[in-house]
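Aggregate trends can hide what the representation actually does to any particular protein. The sequence in question and its structure tokens are set out directly beneath this paragraph.
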Amino acid sequence: MSNKSIFNIIRRPIISEKTISLREALNQVTFEVDMNANKIEIRKAVEHLLEASVSSVNTLIVRGKTRRIGRFSGKRPNWKKAVVTLNEGETIEALDLMDQFDDFEQEGEE
């Protein structure tokens, strides 16, 4: 790998309704990654850090929104999203544990 640390390549997982449905239907997980990271570095970081075999990596740049506070306007920064497709039968245990924790919280509310 290049001089980039694998801990700096993957910033955070993106958890939303859409990404959860992607994970269940197509075995894809979504991460926010470093803007300068390429697909090969993202693949190696996911395989090394999360111990899952990767089938493919798709990346896109999410453009920052323009926001206003009163009469002042600003812009949120752009960021890079990676959609990682895992091989058949592969899962990422950390994300599965988060799902189990969410299920446990919902049972406690009832």
User: Anything to note?
Assistant: Helices lie at 6-9, 17-26, 39-50, 93-109. The mean pLDDT is 87. The chain is about 40% helix and 30% strand.
